[in-house]
Amino acid sequence: MNQKQIKIVKYLALFLLAIFVIFTLFPIYWTFNTSFKTMGEVNNIPPTFIPKNPTVRPYVAIFGKKMATKAIMSSFIISVSSTILSVIIGSLAGYAFARWPNRAGGDNLSFWILSIRMFPPVAAVLPIFFIFNLFALTDTYISLIITYLIFNLPLAVWLMMMFFGDVPVELEQASYVDGYTPLRTFLKVTLPLVKPGLVSVTILCWIFSWNEFLFAYVLVGSRVKTFPLIFPALAVGSTNYWNQVCALAVLVIIPPIVLFIILRKYMVRGLSLGVVKG
Amino acid sequence: MGKKKDDLVVVKNSTPFLLVLPALVVLVSIVGYPMFWSLFYSLHNYNPIAGAAQFIGGGNYKWLWTLPRWYNSLRHLAYYLFVAVFAEMALAIALALILHEYIKNKTLQIILMVILIIPMMLAPSVVGILWRFIFSPFGGAINAIIEGLFHRPPINWLGEKYALTSVLIADIWEWTSLPLMIIFSGRMSLPESVYEAARVDGAKPGMILTRITIPMLKELIAIAFILRFIDCYKFIDKVTVMTAGGPGEASEVPSFLAYLIGIKQFNIGQATAMSWMIALGAVAVITLFMRFMKQVLAASKLH
User: Fold this and answer.
1) Domain assignment present for A250
2) Cys-Cys link to B243, which of A112, A189, B91, B251 (CB 3.0-4.6 A)?
3) Residue B138: which of A245, A242, A266 has the closest Cα?
4) How far out from the chain centre does Cα B177 lie?
5) Taking CA atoms, what residue in A is nearest to B94?
């Protein structure tokens, strides 16, 4: 290739990148755009690309809707509880797998746990629905808190195993030589060293449970509602309050995005199941 | 190397397993037991509304493989997997390398990464609803753009012909960044000295790409590919929210069909048989994934 061809390739490449960035940004921009429109303007054909009379009424309306605020609260309670459980149980197992792989059950067990993460949810959700029904557990917080462990716990075990594995064994050996007990070593030496890992696992588990739709759709819905459930409800019917739907979307996407920006480095590792060292 | 770590005898022999036990108990009771339950009822004719379960052996499985609707959903899935996964991987590889090669400004690189990651952080139901809105045949943004730029009549995106494709576009939008980030991080970690040596030897850019970059990233590309493949294979939420399998059966995929038959019609025997077929398909792919995973982890332990 001569210089001219190299330049052409470069511009084509940058053009592709630009197109994709626009493609990514457009729906997000459209959500913001619509969330500040009046209903009259939303129904305009053709739609307007900048709100003519920007208004915050859709946001006010969402905060005034008990369904929406209650759903956000429920989502919060469920996702936080499930995350705490996953991180505690997952850290214990992850530590054992990292330090004593053979005595903890071996590679096969840790890989089996990881494989659950990738299992089709529909295969689990059917039996779980009927089993929970038997115990009158459907439509409760606890049903979702438990069920979310299906995908959060494998993630927590596996990632904590990776993060604990990065801590040099020599540090722990030194602490044993100093007369620390295994528990004290774990709490005082190892745990502080995996703090970034712990934070990223917590956030990832939280985002997944915060966003989860299928299990919530099947297991709860009348008394207990999480926020992903009320979107279809808001957007169905004779009157589509798209401006309110978009306002709510803006509100619920802000927390995960902010957390992600802050913790970007560790999160990439988590999302790739630890393959990438970020 | 596992052996060496196990030699660190400071805890009782049983302690490591006791630490794993809580996780194991939870997973066996919320995954193992339900799967066993579902295997049991897949061999029965069972609808709790109609009455008690009746053992019918492989009847549900036989029924399934004669059902045109099932084959239809498999065809949709095949189309979805083929187009979505390949589009996402092709875009991800190209964009990751472009981002590394041509965007030298670190701040700009980070800003672009953050933008690309936003779709992944959204709830799938939000993604579904937003795209339904954008694809709306009347006053939807996409049709407005098509009309404005190309003066073409509006397209019924969520109609029979394009429903599945519309879901697919939403998927590409949501998930291309995951393989992109994996491959980008992999490219960042490749030693620059290899590239310098290649350049000194007068290697052409095309050769550097096909002889060095791609081969060195192949395990990561494989992992990203399988991650996307398995996610697309089991996906259900966007279909539920955007099209509900419709119009008619035009965008039905196996997972959604199993959900319909099980949760909506309470035909538990048939639905569990379906979900077992889906699960078995997943096991094959997951096994493959684990093989690559072991390779990558073994390689990363070497340095």
Assistant:
1) no
2) B251
3) A242
4) 12
5) A13
A218 found inside a domain = yes
pLDDT tens digits along A16-40: 999 999 999 999 999 988 888 888 7
8 Å CB contact between A213 and B237: yes
Instruction: Tell me, yes or no, whether A178 lies in a domain.
Output: yes
B296 touches chain A (CB under 8 A): yes
Residue B53: in which H helix or E strand, if any? Answer: strand B51-55
**A48 reaches B (C-beta below 8 A):** no
How confident is the model over B82-121, as pLDDT tens digits? 999 999 999 999 999 999 988 888 889 888 988 888 888 8
Residue A132 half-sphere exposure toward CB, CA atoms < 13 A:
23
Q: Does one domain contain both A171 and A223?
A: yes
Q: Which residues of chain A have a CB within 8 Å of the CB of B283? A: 115
CA B230 and chain centroid, separation: 4
The b/e string for B202-224 (b: 16+ C-beta within 10 A; e otherwise) is: eeeeeeeeeebbeebbebbbbbb
| Ramachandran angles phi, psi of B45, nearest 5° | -90, 110
* A-B contacts at Cβ under 8 angstroms: 316
Tell whether domain B59-298 is in CATH 1.10.3720.10.
Answer: yes
Question: Are residues A131 and A196 located together in one domain of the fold?
Answer: yes
Q: Which of A126, A143, A267 to mutate to test the interface with B (most CBs of B within 10 A)?
A: A126
Instruction: Give residue B153's pLDDT.
Output: 79
Q: Which amino acid is present at B122?
A: L
**Nearest Cα to Cα of residue B281 among A123, A208, A176:** A123
- CA distance linking residue A273 with residue A158, whole number of Å: 7
Residue A55 lies in a domain: no
What is the number of other CB atoms lying within 10 angstroms of the CB of residue A269? 24
| Chain A stretch 187-206, residues whose beta carbon is closer than 8 A to a beta carbon of chain B | none
- What's the pLDDT score for residue B95? 94
Mean pLDDT across chain B: 85
Q: Is the dihedral of CA A245, A246, A250, A256 positive or negative?
A: positive
pLDDT above 90 coverage of chain A, percent:
21
Give the separation between CA A23 and CA A18, rounded to whole angstroms.
9
Residue for token pair 């890992």: A197
Residue A121 and residue A12 share a domain:
no
- Inform me whether the C-beta atom of residue A99 falls under 8 Å from chain B C-beta atoms: yes
Cβ of B130 and A264 within 8 Å? no
Give dist(CA B3, CA A94) in Å, integer: 17
Query: In chain B, where are the structural domains located?
Result: 59-298
User: Which structural domain, as residue segments, surrounds residue A7?
Assistant: 3-35
Contact criterion met (CB < 8 Å) for B115 and A25:
yes
**B275 in contact with chain A, both atoms CB, cutoff 8 A:** yes
- Give how many domains chain A has, as a whole number: 2
B81 CB contacts (<8 Å, ≥6 apart)? B229, B232, B233
Kindly write down the DSSP assignment for every residue of A36-50, as one continuous string. Answer: TS-HHHHT-SSPPSS
Q: Which of A16, A30, A105 sits opposite B134 (nearest CB)?
A: A30
Chain B residue numbers with beta carbons less than 8 Å from the beta carbon of A16 are: 94-95, 98
Q: What is the chain A residue with the closest CA to B186?
A: A276
